[in-house]
Design goal:
The complex is a heterodimer of chains A (174) and B (150).
Chain A: H1 2-10, H2 14-25, H3 28-44, H4 55-74, H5 83-87, H6 100-113, H7 116-127, H8 132-139, H9 143-173
Helix pairs in contact in A: 2-3, 2-4, 3-4, 4-8, 6-9, 7-9, 8-9
Chain B: H1 2-16, H2 22-33, H3 43-55, H4 63-71, H5 79-98, H6 109-112, H7 122-149
The chains are: A mainly alpha (174), B mainly alpha (150).
Chain lengths: 174, 150
C-alpha cells in the first residue's frame, strides 16, 4: 500500500525536486544524489505520512536541507546581494543587437546572481507553481518575507529587461 | 488588441509588485508565450520563455529506477547463513553414520531367507543335531588342548 502511494504521489515529484536541487548545487549528478537521498528518507518515514500537512512541501524542505548540507560540506562561497545589479549593465558592444535568445541568457545570469532566497522564491513560484504559503513553508519564511523576496527578485530582472530594451531602442534610432 | 495590451500591462504591474495570483500569472505566461505579443511588450517574452525553459529541466531517465532500487533493496545471497546450514547438515550426517547401531533383531538378507525343514521325522532331526554338536564339541576340545599345551 505504501509503495503504491510512494509511486503515485511522491515519486512523480522527483523532477521538481531535481530542478530545485540542481539550481542550488549546480551539479546534475549531485542533484540526482540529493533527490535519491531525500526520497529514501521519505520512504523510511512512511509511517508518518498521514501526519504531514503537505507531502510536497515536506519533500521540498527536505531537498533544500539536503542541498544546504552538501553546500556546507563543499564550502562554496555564497553569492553577494548586489551582484545581480552588476550583471544588469554588462560591458558589451553597444552596436550588438540583442536577440531574444541573448536576453534569455542575460536573465539566466541575472537570476543566478540573485541572493539565494530571492532565487529560491522565484523558482518555486515561477517554475513549480507554488503558492505563497507553500513557499513560506518550504523555505521557512514568513509570508511577508516571501513577498519581499519575490518583489526584489522580479524587480532586479525587470531592471535588466528595461535597460536592455532602452539600449535596443537607441540602437534602432541610430 | 489594445484592450488585451492594457490588461496585460496592468497585470504586469501587479506582477512586479508580487501581488498576482497563480491564476493571473498563468494568464501572463500564456500571453507572452504567443508570438503575436504586442511589440511594446515583446521584451518580456524572454522572461516567460526563460521560466518555461527552466521548468523543462529534467533529471536523467535512470533516476526513477535508482530511487525505487534504493527503497526496495534486493536480498543478496547470505553466504554466512548458507555456511552455517551446511555445517549443521554435515554434523548431523556424521553423527548418524558414525554412531554404532543398537543390537536388534537381525534384519539382513540372510534372516529373511526362508528356512526349510531338512527332516520330516523329529527323531532324525534330533539325532542330526546331536551329531553336529558332538563334532563341534570335539573340535572345541581339540582347540582347547592345543592352547593348554602351548
Amino acid at each position: 500500500m505504501s509503495l503504491e502511494v510512494f509511486k503515485g504521489r511522491i515519486l512523480p515529484m522527483k523532477d521538481k525536486l531535481f530542478r530545485f536541487a540542481f539550481r542550488l548545487l549546480q551539479d546534475i549528478q549531485e542533484a540526482e544524489d540529493a533527490v535519491q537521498d531525500v526520497m529514501a528518507g521519505i520512504w523510511a518515514k512512511r509511517a508518518e505520512w498521514p501526519q504531514w500537512n503537505s507531502i510536497e512541501a515536506y519533500c521540498m524542505t527536505a531537498t533544500r536541507n539536503n542541498c544546504l548540507d552538501r553546500l556546507r560540506r563543499r564550502r562554496l562561497p555564497t553569492l553577494q546581494q548586489d551582484s545581480a545589479h552588476q550583471l544588469s549593465s554588462p560591458d558589451h558592444d553597444p552596436h550588438e543587437k540583442m536577440t531574444s535568445k541573448e536576453l534569455i541568457q542575460r536573465i539566466r545570469q541575472c537570476m543566478d546572481a540573485l541572493p539565494q532566497h530571492q532565487q529560491q522564491v522565484i523558482r518555486l513560484r515561477e517554475m513549480e507553481g507554488f503558492s505563497y504559503n507553500e513557499i513560506a513553508e518550504v523555505l521557512d519564511m514568513t509570508l511577508d518575507q516571501v513577498k519581499i523576496n519575490l518583489f526584489r527578485g522580479r524587480n532586479a530582472i525587470r531592471q535588466l529587461i528595461t535597460k536592455q530594451e532602452e539600449k535596443w531602442k537607441k540602437q534602432n534610432q541610430q | 488588441m489594445e484592450k488585451a495590451k492594457s490588461t496585460m500591462i496592468a497585470l504586469l504591474e501587479k506582477y512586479w509588485r508580487a501581488e498576482t495570483t497563480l491564476e493571473e500569472e498563468k494568464i501572463l505566461a500564456e500571453y507572452f508565450r504567443e508570438p503575436s505579443t504586442d511589440p511594446d511588450l515583446q521584451p518580456y517574452n524572454a522572461l516567460f520563455a526563460y521560466f518555461e525553459e527552466e521548468a523543462g529541466v529534467l533529471p536523467s531517465p535512470g533516476l526513477e529506477a535508482r530511487i525505487l532500487h534504493s527503497i526496495t533493496p534486493v536480498r543478496h545471497f547470505d553466504w554466512g547463513m548458507f555456511s552455517a546450514a551446511a555445517a549443521i547438515l554435515v554434523l548431523v550426517a556424521s553423527l548418524f553414520l558414525l554412531t554404532p547401531k543398537p543390537a536388534g533383531p537381525i534384519q539382513n538378507s540372510t534372516a529373511v531367507t526362508r528356512i526349510t525343514d531338512t527332516y520330516d521325522d523329529p527323531d532324525q532331526a534330533l539325532a542330526a543335531v546331536r551329531h553336529a554338536l558332538l563334532i563341534a564339541s570335539n573340535h572345541l576340545n581339540e582347540g582347547r588342548k592345543q592352547i593348554i599345551n602351548k
